């Protein structure tokens, strides 16, 4: 009854579980390397479906206008819809599947807990314990996802630059922006040490300045 009353959320829950399943079989190719490549595409297609449903949920009234497009580009679901479409026809890149896998896992876990609560407050204690442990590590998982988003960029600079600027300016998920700041603080701390060569210090400062100029303005 709970699932039927929340059809869109249930559809996203199922697609996220399928994404986790396909991603896991790509990362751990138990059925062979050839099958792993097809699971890579299935995971990204399932994630694209989830992202499209979530975007529709966030912006239900579609308009063919520049204002609507600008608003859509602020949504995390739009970012990962574009992300999935970028990588779905490319050669499988293992690093690119981890954000898809982990985001799907986190969101699926959250909704699974709601399903269990609707069924009974004490149902399946072992599964509840696993979900609680996953939720306790949510911040670390989100930081790991942000690391993947950042370090994936050198491999696919032109495709991912726009995606990374969207993730940096995300209103709902600040972890990519936060990690950029933390990395800058670490680098600046290291280059201020007396043992750091002058040319390395200058090179790092130039790099920081260049990346800072590329960073979009966050509202």
UniProtKB/TrEMBL annotation:
It is found in: Membrane. Its main location: membrane. GO terms for cellular component: endoplasmic reticulum; membrane. It comes from the Eukaryota. It is a multi-pass membrane protein. The chain crosses the membrane at residues 12-33, 80-106, 141-164. Keywords: Membrane, Transmembrane, Transmembrane helix. Belongs to the PER33/POM33 family. One of its GO terms (biological process) is endoplasmic reticulum tubular network organization. This is TMM33 protein. Pfam families: TMEM33_Pom33 (PF03661).
